[in-house]
Give the backbone structure.
Amino acid sequence: MRIGVVAPSTPIERTVADRVTALAEEAGAEVHFHPQCFLVHKHFAGEDRVRADAFVEVANDPGFDALWFARGGYGSCRIAEDVLARLGITAREKAYLGYSDAGYLLAGLYHAGFDQIAHGPMPQDVKRDGGEAAVLRALSWLVDRSVDALEPSVAEDARHAAFNITVFSQLLGTPLQPDLTDHVLMLEEVSEHTYRTDRSMFHISSNPAVRRVAGIRLGRCSLVPENDPDFGESEEEVVRHWCERSGIPWLGVADIGHDADNKVVPFG
């Protein structure tokens, strides 16, 4: 299997690529990091057009079986519509794996009918404590569709999707918003004050289309800054509150998050 890696958001270091390339060889895969992954333009891994071109190049290349997002950060929303408009039939035959800021493009791809979309670890995760296990988990899904890589509640008789809370909230009402009717929606967050999570959940749970999901599961909300004054509720309490207010079923917790234990959630 040949996997192409692009960075629609922020850049990665070459040491990350070297470590992941070696792990991929162990997993029976060949990983190619597009040179764009290492470019730096202000906050981004190259200018918008450069990042979009790299994504389209790999997605439309029949020599690659999958496209793997290099990392999160910020920037995917700036190129998503341009990218989606330029994808051909070959792009529909690939698997796409990422999370966090990659959610903008994953949502847009799913909205456009791409059927091999998944939330899951990215190459940048190799830098985390226990990160090699996360990368190998992602590779096991890309190469073998290993069920051991999946979030434990993923079931064959249900449909699923997973997003970062802030990213999902921001893409609602845009051309990227997918139809998640009857899906189990898994959400996670990182580095956001609890009041911001509360505000995002107001927006998410108020969306008429989101109210048609089968229910919401909450993954880990990590590195939460202190609120002043204290918000007085946990992230789970916040999500349960908005589920109750909106009539969306609360389904419990999910084993996803911005950490090395992040599991794979295939869309659909």
In short: The mean pLDDT is 98.
